[in-house]
Design brief:
The chain has 287 residues and is of the alpha/beta class. It folds into two domains: 3-96 and 172-286, Metal-dependent hydrolases (TIM Barrel), CATH 3.20.20.140; 104-162, DNA polymerase, domain 1, CATH 1.10.150. It is built from ten helices and eight strands. Strands 1, 2, 3, 4, 5, 6, 7 and 8 form an eight-stranded mixed β-sheet that branches.
């Protein structure tokens, strides 16, 4: 079985529409795919419709979720995959809305810093790179910089201007990972920390923080991810076994926005069974 529990559409910073994502996943032969756009459930309805109406006879399960932007006590960016939660649980959805609103003001401040350094770009150009209601993020700014000719591609934009250590980088409001775990679980879902030791992308949390999140009720760890090296995977696997956590592997697919390919890393069926069993209700969409 091919199980990919972390993908994005243009409801946030992916380049495929939810329908296109479903079509590609079916063509790829995936058995289970999770749609996890940043801080939103906006792509869910389109993905469900695309799955139900797809012309293929292939069977595939759709797991609905979101990648929740969080911030540790030291300001470290932490991403939490919330899966199988009730989208009508208003405290969680309100937190998404608050985070998205703050992304807009943060973007304006980053643009101001770029302008002050002589790099011409406007908020209108950035907004033109996203779908109308998509969650605004740095990848949209990267695309605007590409369109302006400042850089060749997203990767170069992040390497030069938009990485976490850049002088242009600004944090935005986001909940603590402990709050995110609580809200996801109150909404009946499960919480899996995404790429926690992703040294290859510059984001890495310390093991003490990770242990605190385990105590807060974390359900699983995304171990197999292209931004983890072999040593990091081994350390995360050790923690997962020690604390009886679910182990996942995922692509973190963004369409053409990243090199990541669908199902380049996958989750073992037994681990997926364990994870789904932790949710309060069966919310997988099947065809």
């Amino acid at each position: 079985m091919l199980i990919d529990l972390h993908t994005h559409s243009n409801a946030s910073d992916g380049t495929d529409s939810p329908s296109e994502l479903i079509d590609k996943a079916i063509s790829k032969g995936l058995d289970v795919i999770a749609l996890t756009d940043h801080d939103t459930v906006a792509g869910w309805d389109e993905a469900i419709s695309a799955l139900k109406s797809h012309e293929s006879n292939s069977k595939m399960d759709l797991v609905l979720g979101s990648e929740v932007s969080c911030q540790g006590a030291d300001g470290t960016s932490i991403h939490m995959l919330g899966l199988l939660f009730d989208p009508n649980y208003s405290p969680l959805i309100s937190e998404f809305e608050k985070t998205r609103e703050n992304r807009v003001t943060r973007m304006s401040r980053i643009i101001s810093r770029l302008n002050e350094a002589g790099i011409e770009i406007t908020i209108e150009e950035v907004n033109a790179q996203k779908r109308g209601d998509a969650t605004l993020g740095r990848p949209h700014l990267a695309d605007a910089l590409v369109a302006r000719g400042h850089v060749a591609n997203r990767e170069e934009a992040f390497n030069i201007f938009l990485h976490n250590g850049s002088k242009f980088y600004i944090n935005h409001y986001s909940p603590s990972p402990e709050v995110a775990i609580r809200l996801i679980k109150e909404a009946g879902g499960v919480a899996v920390i995404a790429h926690p030791l992703a040294s290859r992308s510059g984001r890495k949390i310390d093991l003490e923080t990770l242990n605190q999140l385990i105590q807060a009720g974390l359900d699983g760890i995304e171990v197999d991810h292209r931004d983890h090296n072999e040593m990091e995977r081994s350390e995360l696997m050790r923690l997962a076994i020690e604390h009886n956590l679910v182990v996942t592997g995922s692509s973190d697919y963004h369409g053409t926005g990243k090199l990541n390919q669908l199902a380049e890393f996958t989750t073992h069926p037994e681990q997926w069974e364990r994870l789904e069993a932790k949710a309060k209700a069966r919310r997988v969409v099947s065809r």
